[in-house]
Design a protein that fits this description.
The complex is a heterotrimer of chains A (238), B (292) and C (633).
Chain A lengths: L7 E10 L2 E11 L4 E5 L6 H9 L6 E6 L2 E2 L5 H7 L1 E4 L11 H6 L14 H7 L1 H5 L10 H13 L5 E5 L7 H16 L3 E6 L2 H7 L2 E6 L2 E7 H5 L3 H6 L2
Helix pairs in contact in A: 7-8
Chain B lengths: L2 H32 L6 H18 L5 H23 L9 H23 L10 H4 L1 E4 L2 E4 H23 L1 H11 L1 H6 L4 H23 L9 H16 L4 H21 L4 H15 L11
Helix pairs in contact in B: 1-6, 1-9, 1-10, 1-11, 2-3, 2-4, 2-9, 2-10, 3-9, 6-7, 10-11, 10-12, 11-12
Chain C lengths: L2 H17 L2 H20 L1 H4 L2 H27 L6 H18 L4 H25 L5 H18 L1 H4 L17 H23 L2 H11 L1 H6 L4 H27 L13 H10 L6 H16 L6 H15 L7 H14 L25 H7 L5 H6 L10 E12 L2 E12 L3 E5 L6 H8 L7 E6 L2 E2 L5 H7 L1 E4 L11 H12 L13 H13 L14 H13 L5 E5 L7 H18 L2 E5 L3 H7 L2 E6 L2 E6 L1 H6 L1 H8 L4
Parallel strand pairs in C: 3-8, 3-9, 6-7, 7-8
Antiparallel strand pairs in C: 1-2, 1-4, 4-5, 9-10
The chains are: A alpha/beta (238), B mainly alpha (292), C alpha/beta (633).
């Protein structure tokens, strides 16, 4: 892809809960067709970073730019429509609604449904969901809900997809399937920011790694540099 | 008690239930989606009644009654939208205490506006002739207006059910009830949706008030009378459940009707008795979400 | 931030810091206190008769506001029916003085008693329902009281009420009646002050901060709430009785539901988090009402508007106004780019610096089984002879169509460490919730120390010796770190039942010991919500330790900790087991912790037990590998 605008550029992002500052200046960048991984333990600030970039957690300073356009002052739902998707932790879904209703709900550009992937395209990518289309999403297994969540994100034609610990609590077999899917999305030019504790799964697909500790980016390196270094041990305590 | 008296009491009870359903449904809908208990819901009902009276007074002609009723409901809906945008929106991130206090203050504010605008007099609108009559059942009579109220409630119930379960808007509302943050992440304009839900709730309350403007006295303080019953309806039925609001309304309406027949002074006590019984068995109401 | 702005902020910050020095603050408080007391005490001297009369009403209003704040500010209960009890008190005096042999003074003694009885009855009903409905029910029940007063006209005089209540001679003199009211209210206010600052008051504040956790440290929440409700109603009735004596009448409108706005408004305006806020609010409101209420049609609008403004802009009330004003000034000077307040870094006590490697052998080699003396010293029933302290058999739970847990069997021996592992959705947390009383099981039994505890509630379990810490940090945010721990230590010993007396100092040693154990001594007086994530997890553990439990259930105790903090926690847990013979049951994802401390491991998957055994057995079990660990690499 061209190296024109970065898909996602975050500079000096700060966030706080009341008086305690949780993010003290996050800088990161993700290019189109790249998978960047945000690695760190629980409590380091991964979830807060993703939520602040997505706009559901208010920022106290810094900027977020999507495809070169500043979205720092844009509210969360508009960022989602503009192409910045977040798949939050825990495989959340609208439990009483069916799988298909879950997918239908998503609003993309101009507030219309279906400006991104069509239902058909999502079902092709996730054949299991086609089988489950009429089932209440609350009765799905963890892996199926995660796929549904990614499917929902794709419905809005995202340029950037952020995922918060998609592997949490899932059997390694399923985790492999998901990381494989992420690789395919990368092929299609989507920029991916993946927050993980599970470094094994993440390193399999990472292009670039950001290590976060106590609310700031402690280190940034390419995946190759990370693989042979002691960085993983240092920041994840492995 | 003769069969005809029984029948008349049932109809009377159901017509009371009709109004209680309109108010209770709005209250429960707002709670389900916004997680706010609007204490001022009864005052919105009163506002609807006053609006209906004053609009009807300015209109002549056969359609006046209907226009007044619908316009009043819409006006209250509009007021609801104003309230949500100006006040409630700022409180979603705050704790429940502050939300309760804010809606409680609205009781005073809206009541105060009504007092200033309409004074402490009694009012009543005129019902069209075809609704003012009565039907004879055996040795007793049933008021045609009561049947009208029941009809309105049935129509509203069906419309609500179809909207919630068969339309896109309904899906959005159900999603908002389940996880509003996730809905925002799905690109849905949740703030506007919340306003919409509150407007719907307020319109229902306003419709309830407007419906009785031609049937009962409209004066300051009718919000006090109705709000206690409305709370009883949602407590018995369970907050957050439309079906619960329907069943709760029927229960309260019938209890009131039969209670008034036996001992008019203590009808409020009868409702409380029922409420205490229900809560003793199911602390979260018949269809409410349980807590330990 | 420009240089000028930063300079003035520093100067101003220094001034504020100076203001906050203890000495100046105490001096200020004493000065204000003396001033206020003098002002109230000499009213007949410096106020004309009409204003003097108002002053009496102000004093009565103060009692009403203080009694209401016991519920709202201290315990977090939002009641919209307080005026009902005010009316009950007024009618008690009125009825006794006019319809019986007794006089107004007798009535005044009876009023709080009647208030307490009514309060207990109504409170019991309102608390029976889930918390959500509490406020609605108080409003409804108070309105019921109004209707009774209105309808039962043979007794209560109906709409008109009762007038011309006869009072003793000395109360006919305006100064005399003022001083009488002042004395009674001062006494009642003192009582409230004592209660609020007692261990019982601590427990109430804990309930306000975190209702669920309060139950888990052994506080029977609904009992305490009912007690607060009863005391508050009783004193409101006393205030109403004073009103009847002072004004000479009682009428139903005292109890109309919108009258219940009065105590709410007074407390809100004055500031509900401070003991003295309601006093300020009562003065403000009563003076305003006396001057304005009857001369305008706009009263409802004015009061409603004030409440709305306070809620939106000044939620801490007048008492909190100076601080809020300061915050606004600070905020506008610094804009969005001020220096944020950061929690100071954690320091570990020297003796807990962890050793480099951790192995299961080290644990089993080093830990001696708890001696019988240690176990018996707890003073509770000994474990069953087969050694199983906690036994779970065929436990099951469904949520609608979803089967969360089914056919789970578990046996935990006293003095052991037992870990439960498994992927998310395996049912581990549900199992914990079923055992620790958060939810009720559909099938199966849970036995603890030989007694069936299936479905027992959290407080009862805490007192039986079963303690629990939470995965999502569940602490008392508004209380200081030391108070969090102290609260748990007091509650578990039943000391929070005492509404009199100061917090016993014998708990201080215990609190200090626990704080040192978890490394939070430096933060003893910091509000818990300001701690960093890792420190809050440590506090979470500290609260559980203060419970002196026999079996401690820990839900992901090392979630969010650095490797250093994890090892420190591991050391702490090992010492705790060794020193006190505590049994540990934990859910964990960190395999280092599991293999470093657990003697038995239960693997759960799909809601039931897959495999159970020693850590090594489990690690090598083919089914576990397939379901949980997946392909290698």
């Amino acid at each position: 892809m061209s190296d024109a605008a970065l898909a996602l550029e975050v500079r000096g992002l700060r966030s706080a809960y009341g008086k305690s500052e949780v993010l003290s200046g996050i800088d990161l960048q993700v290019q189109h067709g790249e998978i960047a991984v945000l690695l760190g333990r629980n409590g380091a600030g991964k979830t807060t970073t993703l939520r602040t970039i997505a706009g559901v957690q208010p920022a106290r300073g810094g900027t977020v730019a999507l495809d070169g356009a500043d979205v720092t002052r844009v509210t969360a739902y508009r960022r989602a429509r503009a192409g910045l998707a977040l798949v939050p932790q825990g495989g959340r879904a609208f439990s009483p609604l069916s799988v298909e209703d879950n997918l239908r709900l998503v609003r993309g550009r101009n507030g219309r449904a279906g400006s991104g992937w069509s239902l058909e395209q999502v079902y092709e990518f996730f054949p299991k969901l086609r089988v489950l289309r009429r089932s209440a999403s609350g009765s799905l297994s963890g892996g199926e809900r995660q796929m549904l969540a990614i499917g929902r994100a794709l419905r809005a034609n995202p340029h950037v997809v952020m995922l918060d610990e998609p592997s949490e609590g899932l059997a390694p077999v399923i985790v492999q399937a998901i990381t494989g899917l992420l690789g395919e999305l990368r092929q299609r030019g989507i920029a991916i920011l993946l927050a993980e504790q599970n470094h094994q799964a993440a390193m399999r697909v990472a292009d670039r790694c950001y290590f976060i500790e106590k609310g700031r980016i402690a280190h940034c390196a390419t995946a190759e540099e990370v693989r042979d270094s002691g960085l993983l041990a240092r920041y994840l305590g492995v | 008690m003769s069969l005809s008296t029984f029948f008349v009491l049932v109809v009377s009870g159901l017509s009371g239930a009709a109004i209680l359903f309109l108010i209770g449904a709005g209250l429960t809908l707002v709670f389900g989606a916004l997680r706010v208990i609007n204490l001022a819901h009864g005052t919105l009902y009163m506002l609807g009644a006053f609006f209906a009276v004053s609009i009807a007074a300015r209109l002549t002609g056969p359609a006046g009654f209907w226009i007044a009723m619908l316009a009043a409901a819409a006006a209250v809906g509009g007021a609801g939208g104003l309230i949500e945008v100006a006040i409630l929106r700022r409180l979603y991130r705050r704790d429940h205490l502050m939300q309760l206090l804010a809606t409680f203050s609205l009781i005073l504010v809206i009541g105060g506006i009504v007092r200033v605008a309409f004074g402490a007099d009694y009012h009543r609108a005129d019902a069209p002739d075809y609704l003012s009559g009565s039907l004879s059942i055996g040795s007793s009579t049933v008021s045609a207006y009561q049947l009208f109220l029941i009809g309105v409630a049935i129509a509203v119930a069906i419309t609500l059910w179809l909207t919630i379960y068969r339309t896109d808007l309904g899906r959005l509302i159900r999603a908002a009830v389940a996880d509003p943050e996730l809905l925002a992440l799905s690109g849905v304009n949740v703030p506007v949706l919340f306003t919409g839900v509150f407007v719907i709730g307020a319109t229902l309350a306003g419709l309830g008030g407007a419906s009785i403007a031609a049937y009962q006295t409209v004066k300051l303080g009718i919000d006090a009378d109705i709000v206690v019953q409305a709370f009883a309806v949602t407590i018995i039925g369970g907050l957050g459940s439309l079906g619960g609001a329907l069943i709760g309304a029927v229960i309260v309406g019938l209890v009131q009707s039969f209670g008034t027949y036996w001992e008019p002074k203590w009808q409020l006590a009868f409702i409380f008795l029922v409420m205490a019984v229900v809560l003793a068995v199911r602390p979260s109401g018949l269809f409410g979400e349980p807590e330990r | 931030m420009t240089a000028v702005a930063s300079a003035s902020t520093t100067r101003a910050a220094r001034a504020l810091a100076a203001l906050q020095t203890r000495r100046l603050r105490i001096g200020l408080v004493i000065a204000i206190g003396v001033g206020v007391a003098t002002a109230f005490g000499t009213v007949p001297q410096w106020l004309g008769p009409a204003d003097q009369y108002t002053a009496g009403l102000v004093v009565i209003a103060i009692l009403l506001a203080l009694s209401f704040n016991l519920m709202l500010g201290t315990t977090g209960m939002v009641s919209f029916g307080h005026a009902g009890f005010y009316g009950v008190g007024a009618y008690s005096v009125a009825l006794i003085a006019t319809k019986t042999q007794g006089d107004a003074m007798t009535g005044l003694v009876v009023a709080p008693v009647v208030g307490a009885i009514t309060g207990a009855a109504i409170g019991a009903i309102c608390l029976r329902a889930v918390r959500l409905y509490f406020s609605l029910l108080t409003l409804a029940l108070a309105q019921l009281l109004y209707v009774i007063a209105f309808q039962w006209d043979t007794l209560t005089g109906g709409d008109n009420g009762i007038h011309g209540i006869p009072v003793p001679e000395f109360l006919n003199d305006p100064a005399g009646s003022y001083y009488f009211v002042l004395c009674v209210v001062a006494g009642a206010a003192l009582l409230l002050w004592v209660i609020t600052h007692s261990p019982f008051g601590c427990a109430l504040r804990a309930i306000r901060e975190n209702r669920q956790r309060a139950a888990f440290v052994g506080i029977r929440v609904k009992v305490y709430e009912l007690a607060a409700f009863t005391v508050a109603s009783s004193l409101a009735a006393l205030a109403g009785g004073l009103y009847a004596v002072y004004v000479g009448q009682a009428s139903p409108d005292l109890m109309f539901w919108t009258e219940s706005a009065t105590p709410v408004v007074m407390v809100l305006i004055g500031g509900m988090r401070s003991f003295y806020g309601p006093v300020l609010g009562a003065v403000f409101y009563t003076v305003l009402a006396t001057k304005v209420r009857n001369s305008t049609n706009y009263w409802d609008l004015i009061i409603g508007g004030i409440v709305l403004l306070v809620v939106l802009i000044l939620p801490t009330g007048l008492v909190g106004a100076p601080r809020r004003l300061w915050e606004l000034i600070e905020w506008s000077l610094q804009g969005f780019r001020g220096d944020a307040h950061r929690a100071p870094p954690v320091s570990a006590p020297a003796h807990l610096v962890p050793t480099a490697t951790v192995t299961a052998d080290a644990v089993t080699a080093g830990a001696a089984p708890p001696s019988p003396a240690v176990v018996a010293a707890n003073g509770r029933a000994a474990a069953a002879s087969n050694g199983a302290l906690l036994e779970v058999s065929r436990l099951g739970k469904r949520f609608g169509e979803l089967v969360a847990v089914h056919d789970v069997d578990l046996a935990i021996r006293e003095g052991t460490v037992h870990a439960v592992i498994g992927p998310n959705g395996a049912g581990k947390s549900t199992l914990f919730n079923l055992v620790s009383g958060l939810i009720r099981p559909d099938d199966g039994r849970v036995t603890f120390a030989g007694r069936d505890i299936t479905g027992a509630r959290a407080a009862r379990l805490a007192h039986a010796g079963l303690g629990r810490a939470f995965q999502t940090t569940s602490i008392f945010g508004g209380l200081s770190v030391a108070d969090n721990v102290r609260l748990a230590a007091m509650a578990i010993r039943g000391d929070t039942r005492w509404p009199v007396g100061f917090v016993p100092s014998r708990h201080q040693e215990r609190v200090d010991a626990v704080l040192e154990n978890v490394g939070l001594t430096a933060y003893a007086s910091t509000p818990a919500r300001e701690l960093s994530h890792g420190d809050q997890r440590a506090l979470e553990l500290g609260i559980s330790l203060a419970l002196d439990a026999r079996l401690l259930m820990l839900d992901e105790p090392t979630a969010g900790m650095s490797p250093f903090e994890t090892r420190r926690t591991l050391e702490l847990l090992r010492r705790t087991i060794k020193d006190r013979g505590i049994t540990l049951l934990l859910i964990e994802h960190d395999m280092e912790v599991v293999f470093g401390i657990a003697e038995t491991v239960t693997v759960m998957a799909d809601g039931t037990v897959l495999v159970e055994g020693t850590p090594d057995e489990v690690r090598r079990h083919p089914e576990v590998i397939r379901a949980y660990l997946g392909e290698p690499g």
